[in-house]
Amino acid sequence: MRPLIFLLLVLGVTRPAWAQREETLSPDTILVNGRIVTVDAASSVRQALAIRDGKILALGTTAEMRTLATSSTRIIDLGGRTVIPGLIDSHLHAIRAAQTFATEVNWTGVRSLSDAIGRIRDAAKAKPKGAWLIVAGGWTERQFAENRRPTQAELHAAAPDNPVYVQLGYTWAVLTPPALAALNITSATDGVVTGPQATIIALFDRLPKPTLAQQIDGTRAFFRELNRLGMTGVVDPGGNNLFAADYQALFDVWRRGDMTVRVAYSLNGQTAGKELDELRSLTALLPQGFGDDMLRFNGIGERITLAMNNNDAPTPAQEEEYYQVVRWAAGRGMTLTMHWNSDRSVGRLLSIFDRVNAEVPIAPLRWSIAHLNDASPESLKRMQALGVGWTMQDSMYFNGDQLLARDAAAARRTPPIETARKLGVVIGAGTDAHRVASYNPFTSLQWILDGKSVSGASVRGPEETPDRVNALRLYAIGSAWFSHDDDTRGSLEAGKLADLAVLSGDFMTMPVERIGGLESVLTMVDGKVVYAAGPFTALERGTR
Ligand SMILES: [Zn+2]
What we know:
The chain starts with a helix and ends with a helix. Helices cover 37% and strands 18% of the residues. Mean pLDDT is 94; it is low at 1-13. It is an alpha/beta fold. The protein binds zinc ion. Zinc ion binds next to strand 17.
């Protein structure tokens, strides 16, 4: 036997102790030559990061991380690019958006009405005659150069052989003649149906649902779309038009081990007066926190009882019914998130939380209020004292112009991000997509930083504008708090999950007006590449 082969055999079969030790500590992947914005407590920026078994092993200089590498370590040269923690939306109706993502027509971010109608025309060509074309929200006329909504005639001309349904938030929808005929609607002038919200929700429920196979395709495609935008996690608050039976596509993707976005989901009351019974039944075998790092049950909300939903003047009986549900949730150790719009009435909600807190301390349960764009310092102080967090969304990106016209002084502090931050309220960023907003986190981050609406109007002032690291913090570790995950993700620190995004531009230094155009060129979840583009495209094929 030749000495070299003999040596290789010896090394392969009985490895010396030093080599084994090195292997157990060696990273599977190192990222080098980057600008890694860790959002750790010191806001450190590092050059390089090592990953092993889905977790961050170490951070440091490129030279330091290279010394950890062995021959089996994959080395990814970032070429000076910026890396951020995987973004987490703390209030995204992701399960609902995912269900229909493969079958709906998407107007997110489209800047002209003619392009939007072009998407209807393209979809009509791609789909069989008679197939429904549905735009379920996520747009406003103010994003269009034409600054107006589509007419029934325009939509019908673009897709004469298909029923077309276009919804704007929860206030307005337009249907083409084939759509009206299919639903037996005879009373809509020019095909237009207007709110209240309940009317639009009921109308949407009459549209055909995608098949389970289409929902599964949609779920995979939507998660990939979020990965493309640097997202690795969502906290899902249930929502309108989403019933217990609608979770099967998500569960299918999870069961196959194909989740590329971590989902923490909560359950809603669905039937007026029966919410406590429903929630008891739904959660009898579903303890708070049940699941794994990819899919986890995160309690109840954002709708707890129908009677308290968007109700600024609840009766004592409605408050008592609500109290019974949330006291039950507290007793079961459940997290809770509550949709609330207006500061003038939120004291009613906080008083119920106070009452429960006297019996069961709620701070460890991480309850939260969603929206509350006009939160006063007094309400924020009460929330901070109770340990109640605030999920804050970019609704003013679509809707800031109206508030500006109505009350410029109020607009300037809406939402009061810096006041809340300085008071020590836990804040998670997000969008509330996809009916009432775009899901794009970079649209939202740009809005956090410049306070401007989609039309370009300056709405929020600099006194309520965080710096870039703090903005990122809200969208990462801030959001992670709401699903009890801030100790495992949301910042890039040794021991945390390797969820990160390499960006197409430098978030920290680029002109703020270009932040909305950022994308990820490499997204990792659990140290695995889930999305790669441009110079990193080959990495995705290699690992999945
Ligand atoms: Zn809500």
